[in-house]
Design goal:
The complex is a heterodimer of chains A (about 190) and B (about 160).
Chain A lengths: L1 H29 L2 E6 L6 E3 L3 E10 L6 E11 L4 E11 L2 E9 L7 E11 L3 E12 L7 H42 L4
Parallel strand pairs in A: 2-8
Antiparallel strand pairs in A: 1-3, 3-6, 4-5, 4-7, 7-8
Chain B lengths: L2 E6 L4 H12 L3 E6 L4 H10 L7 E5 L11 E2 L5 H14 L4 E5 L5 H4 L2 H17 L3 E7 L4 H7 L5 E4 L1
Parallel strand pairs in B: 1-6, 1-7, 2-3, 2-5, 3-4, 5-6
Helix pairs in contact in B: 3-5, 5-6
The chains are: A alpha+beta (about 190), B alpha/beta (about 160).
Chain lengths: ~190, ~160
């Protein structure tokens, strides 16, 4: 009798476990996620060494239920090379909005970059989103060229004025020599 | 060589210029005209039997064409003006004098401090090159300027 009772409970436990697993699986399978990333206007240009702030929105268009989703973030340069990679897990019921910051390393070259985010749930179903942004050189480094051209401009303008002055004086000198010589030739002296 | 500043009334200005010109006699000179055109001055000198044939004019008044023997410089171009005076001093050999009429006229076209610097430059250069300078200025104009340039001249006469 005891044996049958034990067998009965084992069967019941197994059945309960299976139904729980089924229930969970069905929740994940009925979920339908999407991800949206946005870099807000003032942060679309970020300086080397500063933080890039990204607004991330995860939405479940399927049946509601708290589900852990896996997120993978990447930053690509204009050649597609990954310059930054980060992963995390976030629990989502219907919708989650949050902001993440990513440090732009000092070694990052100025240029155009893409922030890419991938959401993975329910045994590998994926959704992704991306947004471009620019990395600028810190003042005093990349702006040396601007400073150089501005200085060059000033030097050219200065030399222009100096040349004008020199030329005016040259003409005055020539004219005066001519005047003095002319009076001399007329027998003034 | 000395430098002289003569401050006189507007009415007496030409008379004083004529007197100074007569004193220089046949010497060669540079005349910086800030008050009248070279043509007008030549007529006045001719009427007063003053020989202007040995004068080298820098005409700062005429805006059109001038005689071939006249240097024309706008009164706004103080650098060019001082350079022209310096060039005449260099080019004219022997004893010479410099006359500048109506210094205060420069104030119409230039900042006072620039005029002061100009006068200083000219008097120093003339002194270094043994050139006698006589500058005129009407009484009624530019008293502040006159107070600033007194020291650059060896002698100041108020008439």
């Amino acid at each position: 009798m005891k044996f049958f009772i034990i067998i009965f409970f084992m069967v019941m436990s197994l059945s309960l476990s299976l139904s729980l697993v089924d229930a969970l699986t069905s929740v994940e399978e009925s979920a339908l996620f999407d991800i949206f990333v946005e870099i807000l206007e003032p942060h679309q240009e970020v300086y080397v060494g500063e933080e890039l702030f990204v607004a991330i929105k995860l939405v479940n268009f399927g049946e509601a239920g708290r589900i852990d989703v896996f997120l993978e973030y990447e930053i690509w340069d204009d050649s597609g090379k990954v310059v930054l990679n980060r992963k995390e897990t976030v629990a989502v019921e219907t919708q989650v909005n949050f902001i993440r910051d990513f440090h732009i390393a000092e070694s990052t070259l100025p240029g155009s970059y893409i922030f890419y985010a991938k959401l993975i749930y329910a045994d590998g179903i994926e959704a992704d989103s991306q947004h471009s942004f620019d990395v600028k050189a810190v003042d005093g480094e990349g702006n040396y060229w601007i400073l150089f051209w501005v200085l060059l401009g000033f030097i050219i303008v200065y030399l222009g004025f100096e040349f004008k002055k020199f030329w005016d004086r040259f003409l005055i000198k020539i004219r005066i020599k001519k005047i003095v010589k002319g009076k001399g030739e007329e027998g003034v002296y | 060589m000395k430098s002289l500043l003569i401050i006189t009334s507007v009415e007496g200005l030409q008379k004083e210029i004529n007197s100074s010109m007569k004193l220089f006699g046949n010497a060669r000179g540079i005349y910086v005209s800030l008050n009248k055109t070279q043509k007008s001055l030549k007529n006045i000198f001719d009427k007063n039997q003053i020989d202007s044939s040995k004068l080298f004019f820098i005409d700062c008044v005429s805006s059109g064409s001038v005689d071939g023997g006249v240097m024309q410089i706008y009164p706004t171009q103080l650098d060019s003006l001082s350079y022209a005076i310096g060039s005449f001093i260099e080019e004219i050999k022997g004893k010479k004098f410099l006359i500048i009429d109506a210094l205060s006229t420069l104030l119409i076209y230039n900042d006072e401090n620039k005029v002061v610097a100009f006068v200083r430059r000219i008097t120093e250069y003339a002194s270094d090159n043994d050139v006698e300078v006589v500058a005129f200025s009407p009484k009624t104009k530019g008293e502040d300027l006159l107070n600033k340039i007194f020291n650059f001249f060896d002698e100041v006469q108020r008439k």
